[in-house]
Specification:
Elements (H helix, E strand, L loop, with lengths): L14 E4 L5 H12 L3 E6 L2 H13 L6 E4 L7 H15 L4 E3 L16 H28 L3 E6 L12 H20 L5 E7 L6 H6 L15 H8 L10 E3 L4
Parallel strand pairs: 1-2, 1-4, 2-3, 4-5, 5-6, 6-7
Helix pairs in contact: 1-7, 3-4, 4-5
C-alpha cells in the first residue's frame, strides 16, 4: 500500500466528508480526493480557510465541494445530526468519512494539566468522532461500499511522558476503531486508522516549536495512503491501524 498509485478516477461520483480540512493533512487529502473525482465536504471552524480550499479545488477542475463549518469543541449531538441531515438532503449520499480534525496543547505533565484543557481535547479528539460517526451511519449504510478513516498517533500506541490528554485521546481512538470495525465486520463499511507520524503541520509545530520542520515530510506526501484506504482498492483492509511512515 505504501507504493500505491491511485487511478485517476478512483473516487469518481463518491461523496466524502473530511474534518479539519482547512489546513495540514486535512487540506492536502481533501484536495487529493477531489483530484480523483470525489465531491468533498470540507469541514472546519474558519469559513475563510475552507473557502480557500474550495476555490483551489474548483480552479483545478475538481467537482464542486461543499462547506460545512462546525466547531467540534462546542457542538452538541443535535448539530451533528443536523450536519448529517444536510449532507443527505443536499448531496444525497455519503461514501466516506475522514476523521482528521484534532487539537493539541503544549506538552505538560499530567500533574499540571488544566482540567478544561483535558475536557476540550477529549471533546475534539474523541467525542466528536463518536458523535459524527453515529450521525453519519445511516447514510454510510446506504452506500454500496463506504470507508471510515480515523486518525491515530504513535503516542496513542505507546504512552509518552508529557503528552497527557492528547495521547489518552489517541489511545481511545485506537479502541474506538477496533470496536467499530468489529461491529461492522461483514458490512458495506470498512474502518481503519492512520497514524500519520511526524509531518510538517501547524499542530506538529505546537508540540515541537524548536523542531526543524524542513526535515519533516509534507502532508501531500501522505495522500496516496489516504486515497488507498478511501477507495475500493482497499476493500479487504478492515480494522487495521496503519503507520503512514513505518520504521
Amino acid at each position: 500500500m505504501y507504493q500505491y498509485q491511485p487511478p485517476a478516477e478512483l473516487l469518481k461520483d463518491k461523496v466524502i466528508l473530511v474534518t479539519g480540512a482547512s489546513d495540514g493533512i486535512g487540506a492536502a487529502v481533501a484536495k487529493a480526493y477531489a483530484r480523483h473525482g470525489a465531491t468533498v465536504i470540507l469541514h472546519g471552524r474558519k469559513v475563510e480557510k475552507l473557502e480557500a480550499i474550495y476555490d483551489e479545488i474548483v480552479a483545478k477542475g475538481g467537482p464542486q465541494p461543499a462547506i460545512l463549518p462546525l466547531d467540534l469543541q462546542s457542538a452538541a449531538q443535535q448539530q451533528y445530526q443536523s450536519l448529517a441531515e444536510t449532507i443527505g438532503k443536499e448531496l444525497g449520499r455519503l461514501d466516506g468519512v475522514l476523521h482528521n480534525a484534532a487539537m493539541i496543547s503544549e506538552l505538560t505533565p499530567i500533574e499540571f494539566t488544566e482540567v478544561n484543557v483535558w475536557h476540550e481535547m477529549m471533546q475534539v479528539n474523541l467525542n466528536s468522532v463518536f458523535m459524527l460517526t453515529q450521525a453519519c451511519m445511516p447514510l454510510l449504510r446506504e452506500a454500496p461500499t463506504a470507508s471510515i478513516i480515523t486518525t491515530s498517533s504513535g503516542v496513542g500506541k505507546k504512552g509518552r511522558a508529557f503528552w497527557g490528554p492528547y495521547a489518552v485521546s489517541k489511545f481511545a481512538i485506537e479502541g474506538f476503531t477496533q470496536v467499530l470495525a468489529d461491529e461492522l465486520e461483514g458490512s458495506n463499511i470498512r474502518v481503519n486508522a492512520i497514524n500519520p507520524g511526524a509531518t510538517r503541520t501547524r499542530m506538529r509545530a505546537t508540540a515541537f516549536p524548536a523542531e526543524d520542520a524542513s526535515r519533516l515530510i509534507s502532508p501531500s506526501e501522505l495522500e496516496n495512503l489516504y486515497l488507498y484506504l478511501m477507495g475500493e482498492d482497499s476493500a479487504d483492509i478492515h480494522g487495521q491501524s496503519i503507520d503512514a511512515q513505518p520504521k
